[in-house]
Amino acid sequence: MKFTKNNSEETATFWEHLEVLRWTFLRIFAVLFVLLVLVFGFKDFIFNSIIFKPLSSDFAFYRLLCLLGDLLNSPGFCPEDFKINLININLAGQFLAHITSSFSIALVASVPFLLFEIWRFVAPALYPGEKKNVGFIFFSSSFLFYLGAAVSYFIVFPLTIRFLGTYTVSELVPNQISLQSYMSTLYILVFSMGLMFEMPVLAYFLSRMGIVTREGLKKFRNYAVVGVLVISAFITPTTDPFTMLVVAFPLYVLYEVSILVCRKETPEKDDEEETES
């Protein structure tokens, strides 16, 4: 496979590739900067209505659990009121938190543009048959990332911060969570879940490269269940099995979707394996 220039048979030079890559990074940085400036101006909304909202007992997920408890006549589903105090111990901590949050939100918002720029850069190296599914892959990649980020923000992070933020070894040691610790946990969970939800897209590309097949993923289904449970337990270190299952269920569904998007083993490959045996 070779890089071509302007979809012609003329092969682009290394410096031409470097120039294209330079302009790709410049466009990405320009979009990120513009989004960062825009987000930076909405400090009150960003912090009070988004970042700190899971600290409130009227958060959407908590209300949903209470509604579920009413429907199932099980009051235990409804979480009790809680309060977590955040503190800042650094002189420039709150200003840096403002900048960091603005950049993180700008980065999340620019994911479709980032994927589009990546595709523009690698498009000249693709054959026509490899380009026909680009639109679907572009849409599915963006959708899955935002779906994973939403699951993390609305479900995983509230359960995690509620458990870890209120867990104590003794009444003599009150919890005073630092602002930096709270925000870093939020960012790590959101981005990690967003990337993990790209599993079907990764499986699609690996199957096109011949690295994985649908049959191979089916054979490892039992191991995948164990792996999903381990990952879920790591992401949500709580004693409540419901929390772990809430995370494990969508991850396992993604594994099944990955099986569906993978290629089957080709007949030629099957014949070769039978001949070798």
Per-chain topology:
Layout: H1 14-40, H2 43-51, H3 60-71, E1 86-87, H4 93-109, H5 111-122, H6 128-131, H7 134-166, E2 177-178, H8 179-196, H9 199-208, H10 214-219, H11 221-235, H12 241-261, H13 267-276
Parallel strand pairs: 1-2
Helix pairs in contact: 1-4, 1-5, 4-8, 5-7, 7-8, 9-12, 11-12
Describe the structure.
It is a single chain. By secondary structure, this protein is mainly alpha-helical. It folds into two domains: 194 residues, no CATH class; 80 residues, no CATH class. It is built from 13 helices and two strands, in the order αααβααααβαααααα. It has a two-stranded parallel ribbon. Helix 1 crosses helix 4, helix 1 runs antiparallel to helix 5 and helix 9 packs parallel to helix 12. The longest helix is centred in the middle third of the chain and has 33 residues. It is globular, with a radius of gyration of 23 Å. The two termini are 33 Å apart. The N terminus and C terminus are likely disordered.
> Which segments are poorly predicted (pLDDT under 50) over 5 or more consecutive residues?
1-9, 267-277
> Based on the structure, what is the oligomeric state of the protein chains?
single chain
Overall mean pLDDT stands at 80
Q: Count of DSSP E strands? A: 2
Question: What's the tally of helices?
Answer: 13
